[in-house]
Every structure is written in structure tokens, then in C-alpha cells.
Specification:
Helices cover 33% and strands 21% of the residues. It is of the alpha+beta class and 489 residues long. It has a seven-stranded mixed β-sheet with strand order 5-4-1-2-3-16-15, with helices on both faces. A seven-stranded mixed β-sheet has the order 7-6-14-13-8-9-10, with helices on one face. Helix 2 (94-104) runs parallel beside helix 3 (124-131).
Amino acid sequence: MSLSSTSSHTMDKSITLPPDEIFRNLENAKRFAIDIGGSLTKLAYYSTVQHKVAKVRSFDHATKVNRDDKLYEISVQEEVTARLHFIKFENAYIETCLDFIKDHLVNTDTKVIKATGGGAHKFKELIERKLGLKVDKEDEMTCLIKGCNFVLRNIPHEAFVYAKHADSEFRFQTTQPDIFPYLLVNIGSGVSIVKVESEDKFERIGGSSIGGGTFWGLGALLTKTKRFDELLQLASKGQHTSVDMLVKDIYGGSYGSLGLTGDLIASSFGKSATADKEFSKEDMAKSLLHMISNDIGQLACLYAKLHNLSRVYFGGFFIRGHPVTMHTITYSINFFTKGEVQALFLRHEGYLGAIGAFLKGAEEDNPNQYSWGENYAGSSGLMSVSPDMNPMQRARSGTFDMLEMDRLERQLVNLPLLQDPSSYIPDTMDLTEDALAREYWLYCFEEALDGVVKRAVASQPDMPEAAQRAEKFRQKYRHKLQTLRQQPL
């Protein structure tokens, strides 16, 4: 189903998500924020969700008289909880999305929308005209850091290490109680390297003009390919050794006294000056990717060493979950630190600016006093990057990514009864790594599904649409299980 608003604008047919799943609970939206980059828009809003919660009341049977006395009783109560919604889509669809939001806003008393990113100025007039909200711009770096702190604190296993040739490409990191200090390397058009020491204390300690824009610009000149994703696709198929001059090309092998292996790049694009032949687009794109990634990796390592920081996170549109960029950055960091520092990536790095802008607008509600949990059913998740597992998963154009977070009833603290929580190793089963256990549990969930659906319908005998809703649940739940089979990450 394509998403359409009541205006003349309609979404591209490649968008397959129904509208009620993209902008959920829009009628209850309270606040808005938007982060507009060079190619992607990230929209954030706050809503309230009403649902039923089972409350269990247990009884003290120390003075038990009758055998039939209940051990406990369950009562069902209506509860209203707060939810954060984050939606990411291509800038080409911004006008249609704004129309859709305008047509479906019902109960909002919002007068201002917080905005950040390079495109906030470009689209300011359009947003104000379509939504009737005043655009209030926020500093991009402040929003980025606020968003980063928020996901690191609230989402378990937010950070991961990428290992291209391992059984599981993603190795998720356990969230530490204290997330500070850390280094954030944001690779956009250029590179900003930011040292973050606390919630409100950060400093841009360095950077480079050689970043994602350099890869895109030089790549376009070399290959005549204008789209960033297509350029990365070319690089993933290339052999950089056809273009780069290696140590062994100069010395016939390794240079032992300096500790240089023969396969090490001695000169990026070094062969192109002397070889009398044409080079393929794929090989040139791969060489360029290595050159820029190695440069960024070495810079990041030097700053991490200078400031004695062991946690180094990478983000920005250059990364954006692309396996080829994550692999080259990981290789570079591993080489320059001799394995002492790991390159860390974030599952939701594309949302950091929008999250930060939203938090700036919601400061009076003090959202940081609460804990927030990811609502997996309403979130896109992290797709597997194995091409043989799902060849269509990189077809990004016309798709919407979503993240939803629910406010938890109580603030979570890290294992308060343990003397040293950081040394605790939980006895959990990682279904992303254990294929046998994964298949067993997915089979169990699938087998139980029909029984759950029957009980759901039976629990609401007076609701004529109960069967229809239960069937919709069955289909969505089964689809989720199939997705987890194909893309366990």
C-alpha cells in the first residue's frame, strides 16, 4: 500500500508501509522536532498511548484457613504511557509527509517545532507554511551529543563492533553504568572529532576536511557515479590492490626492520601514475574508500591516545550502517592502535540529531529523569548485512525507518544490589549467535501463536472487531518471526 495524504501529493509506489504504521499515534502528538540533512530527514514527536496492563496482587497465606483461598488475583487496568516516535525518510518525500501530518493532527497544542541539521534553514518556510508551527533552530553539534548520550544510556546493546568475516557480523556491547568519557567521530561532509566528558560538557578537539564529502566528490569525478550509495556499491566489488601501491610492490616483500607487511598500502593510487592501463570504477572506488577511511582512522586513534580515551564511536552519513565503510574504519582503527582500541558503531546513529533536538524542546518535562525502552514492535531494527541472506535489504530508496521508545514506569538503575555491577556477567543466551537456540525458540513462538490468538479473541467476547484485530496481530507477529529468521540482527 502506498502512503497518501488527502492532498494531491502521493508517495512513491516503492513505499510499502501502511500509513498507520509510519506515523503512529499522530492524533495524540504533543511535540515535534526535525533534523534535516543533505539527503535524509528525521522527524521526532511525542505521543501518549493507552493500553491495558495486568496487575497482579498476591495474598499472604501465613494464616491460611481454606484450601480454596486464592494465592493471587489479576486485575486489568487501563494505563496511559508516553512514547517517543522517530521516523527517517528521504528529503524527496518531505512535502508529502508534512501534508500527511497536517491532515492527521488532532489534539496538539504545539506551537513550535525544534529543527537542526543543514537543511533546517532550506526547508524552514515550507515547514512553517505546511504545519503552522514556528521553526526554532538548535545547534547541530549540541543536538548530536544530546542524542548520543540518550541512546547510550537508554538502549541496551546500542553500540556494536563490526566483524565482517565472523559468524555474527555484529558484536553488541553491554551498556556500562557510566557512559563518559568518550570520543565521537562524526563523519559527514568533513570530519568532526568531539570529546564528551559529561551530559553537558563536550569539546570539538579536532577534525578534517577529508571526509564523506571528499569520498563522494572525488568518487563522482573518478567514476561518473553521482549517488553515494551506488559509489559504495562499486567499492564493495572492487580490488584496491589494482590501484594502490603496496609495500611488496616497492621492496618485493615485507619491510621487516620497520615492521611493515608486504600487503600494507604504501601509496594510495600509487600504481595509477605508472601503469599504462585503464582502471575499473570498482577498483578506483575501493582505493578511494581505503584512503579516506585510513586517514580518518589514524586521526581518531591519535586523538584517542592524546586524550587517553578508550571508547571511540563513529557516526555520520558516511557510516549509515554500510558494511563496507564500517569494515574499512574497523580495519584502520585496529591497525593503528594494534588492537588496543575498538571502533564502535551505534544502531541508531542516524537519529541522534533528531533525538537531541527533541530533548532540547522537551527540557521542561525533564525527559532524562525517566528511563526509556525501545519498542521493538514499532521499530525497524538493524538489518543483517549478509547479501546472501536478503539481497533486497540494501534497496533503501523510498523506505521509511522507524524507532519508537516507551517511557518506563520506573527509572532503571544498574543492578543496585551488586557490589560491583561492571564485573557481573549475566547468564543469557545470544540468539544472534546461537543458530540452534534461535531456531528452537522461533519455532516455540510460532507454535504458540494460534493459542494466543484464540485467547485474545475469547478475552473480548463483546467486541465485534476482536477477531479481525487478532488476525491482524497474527499476520504481523508471524511476519516479525520470519524477519528474525532471515535477519537475526
